[in-house]
Amino acid sequence: MDITDFIKLAAQEPPLPFLIIGGYAVGAHGHTRATFDVDFLVRAADRETWLGRLVAAGLKLFAQTKSFAQFSQPSAGDGLDLMFVDDATYDRMWQAAELRDFGGVPARIPCLDHVLALKLHVLKQALPHRTSKDAEDVEMLVRRNELNLLDPRYETLFLKYGTREIYDTFVRILRHP
């Protein structure tokens, strides 16, 4: 299974709403990089339905927490990670989401600001196995989308989801006037 298969799996009756996040969303916003899994942001209220559907499709649940579930395939192929959020968060992100094409199959991704917020939230946690990848994603999204981090809107975004140190570091790295 690949990303298009996962999208089609979500569309089966009853359809399960989701947003594509992670590497595929980063790529859709201009920074293509290697990714070895597919990431969906989904409603926490749909958790059991998602888990049942994915196991029934032959995926193997290999790790889960309150906020995440990770699946692998018995044979080679992309894994699928689910990030569970409350209804209010999901609805806010869905309202601003953008429709994109993934191998001829349409699906929604978060808007650029929401992708940045997700990345900043992870950077704030300072997880050693994620920091360099997520920092590169933020840097390249800012560069490729020609964002001015000195715009108060972006300073507010960085401070809300990241930290002052993260914001100041990116302003310094990107050498905004």
Describe this structure in words.
By secondary structure, the protein is an alpha+beta fold. The chain has two domains: 110 residues, 2-Layer Sandwich (Beta Polymerase, domain 2), CATH 3.30.460.40; 67 residues, no CATH class. It contains eight helices and seven strands. The strands form two sheets. It has a five-stranded mixed beta sheet with strand order 1-2-5-4-3. It has a two-stranded antiparallel sheet with strand order 6-7. Strand 3 and strand 4 form a beta hairpin. Helix 5 crosses helix 7. The longest helix has 14 residues. The chain is elongated. The model has no long low-confidence stretch (mean pLDDT 95).
Strand order of the largest sheet: 1-2-5-4-3
Distance from N terminus to C terminus (CA atoms, Å) equals 46 Å
How many separate domains?
2
**Highest-level CATH class of the largest domain:** Alpha Beta
In CATH, the architecture of the largest domain is 2-Layer Sandwich
> From N to C, what is the helix and strand string?
HEHEHEEEHEEHHHH
Average pLDDT taken over every residue = 95
CATH topology of the largest domain: Beta Polymerase, domain 2
Q: Would you identify the regions where 5 or more consecutive residues have pLDDT less than 50?
A: none
| Helix coverage percent | 40-55%
Radius of gyration: 17 Å
**Distinct helical segment count:** 8
Inertia-based shape? elongated
Strand content: 15-25%
Outline the biggest β-sheet: 5 strands, mixed
What structural class should be given to the helix and strand makeup? Answer: alpha+beta
Number of strands: 7
